[in-house]
Amino acid sequence: MIRLGVPSKGRLMEKTFDWFGARGLSLRKNGNDREYAGVVEGIEGVELALLSAGEIPRELAAGRLHLGVTGSDLVREKVAGWDLRLRELAHMGFGGADLIIAVPQAWVDVDTLDDLDAVAAAFRRTHGFRLRIATKYHRLTREFLREHGVADYQLVDSQGATEGVVRNETAEAIADITSTGETLRANGLKILSDGMIHSSQATLFKSNTAPWSDAHRATLDALEDRLGL
Amino acid sequence: MMPGPMGGPARAEAARLSAIFEATGAQAVDTSILQPADVLLDLYGEDIRARAYVTADPLRGEMMLRPDFTVPVVRAHMEEGGDPARYTYAGEVFRRQETDPARPIEFLQTGFEIFGGDPAQADAEVFATIAGALEGLDLRPSTGDIGILMAAVRGLGTSEARKAALLRHVWRPRRFRALLDRYSARTPLPAHKTALLAAADPMAGIETLPGLRSRAEIEARIATLRAEAETPPLGEEETALIDMIVDLRETAPNVLSSLRDIAVDMPAISDAVTGLTRRLDALSARGVDVETLPFEGSFGRTTLEYYDGFVFGFQSPTRADLPPVATGGRYDALTRQLGQGRAVPAVGGVIRPELVVQIREGRA
């Protein structure tokens, strides 16, 4: 059996079920709503596992799932060298969100990463510590800022309500996911014009590290046919 | 099978190298494997987290598995060392690998550091001693001198603010290039900045200001941007000279003659060029073939290290997949940062014994 992991709740689960449904494959949870196993109807040899979207990247990288649906941002953040261990089979066209860098709207002098870098240098001189950027996407943010030559910042961990950190004075800027920017604006923040770290969407991934027997491969071929991949 | 850090041949090689360094009078020193993270984070910034293992102690806070020996050795020297002094050390360093699983996460380094003394002589001694220790291996040396680029930037006929910004980014070539293009008006001022500077009151409509960055700080930045906009662009000639220095890639004698030509138009680099001349003489006196010694104007600019003068490396030409077998350079500024006001000229280098063994075995 091929193990397919999909998000276990919320809109991401519903949209995933819809996406497969539109391609003639019915994904269903087993029995009651609390159970985290399911069935795939319309094709033989595929078993459904319902997991937290945040755990799916790790399970794919470890080869415990053959296929999985999760955000492309989560894979890039959680799996080092992800493109060696996983392959993108399909961008699914939903769950879109942008990982961006945002600063207070009141920073009228700041519009680009170039400004952020200059402000970070001055901030460190004035305050004696590095400008703090709150995020839960440490790897993606650090790689992005290194690539663009931004210095004199530090990342502080924020696992939720990241938009509020500036007001609470625990950070000066944030790197966070946004879909409409509404929450950012409501919290007095604005997105840097060149501050797009990654444009994410729900993606069907294949694990290169999972065991792929001939039978598994035959099932994958049949599945890809059905999905039009 | 790659010899691990505990491998006998690598240990024996480390001991052989230590003996060579000790024979020059270097004092053998050791450092803790667990280093306080704050010192390294303060020096290198967030990038060090991608390279070093961070762990936490309930009482001491964040600690790092030493990513190199240089920082703890410099700290120890600045606290209690005499002048001049020379040290050698050998042991494991630890490096996170986020992209290449083939790179080791734990390997040996045997190092040699000289504090004080005549800089040209010390540079030459470190390079020649390491080259001597690696004799018989087919390795290609690389050299450079970040001090020449820094001297050229200091000599630009422009504002101190621009020079400080360029010096801050000497180790980030991409941002350095972007700044240079902006200061020489090769790239236009972005529309956002034009609008900001045209506004009668840029802060109009800003009522609340969340966070630690104050109104005064924002106004100071706007004043800086105003002053910057009023500073005349760098002349084509000056930026062309910087480009020439960055792009130098020739044998040391040819580079020296190019630099002497550049120094005619840019006298600010004269002292650095004299330093290079003296270093090449000192290398030659120690038996290094400087006629064929390669020199690159940008060598050492993308490392995390704080090299600000002579830089060098030794790489296997047939094993380009391997990291350099030895690297080193001068780090005067690092001693100032760690010395709380005190500074000592310092130069050093490390050899990776596992790579020496690997290349020697590959050749046999």
TrEMBL record, chain A:
Protein name: ATP phosphoribosyltransferase
Any one Gene Ontology BP term: L-histidine biosynthetic process
Alphabetically ordered keywords of this record: Amino-acid biosynthesis, Glycosyltransferase, Histidine biosynthesis, Transferase
GO cellular component: cytoplasm
Enzyme class, first EC level, given as a word: transferase
Keyword Nucleotidyltransferase found: no
ATP phosphoribosyltransferase catalytic domain mapped to chain residues: 53-223
Role noted for this protein: Catalyzes the condensation of ATP and 5-phosphoribose 1-diphosphate to form N'-(5'-phosphoribosyl)-ATP (PR-ATP). Has a crucial role in the pathway because the rate of histidine biosynthesis seems to be controlled primarily by regulation of HisG enzymatic activity.
Enzymatic reactions: 1-(5-phospho-beta-D-ribosyl)-ATP + diphosphate = 5-phospho-alpha-D-ribose 1-diphosphate + ATP
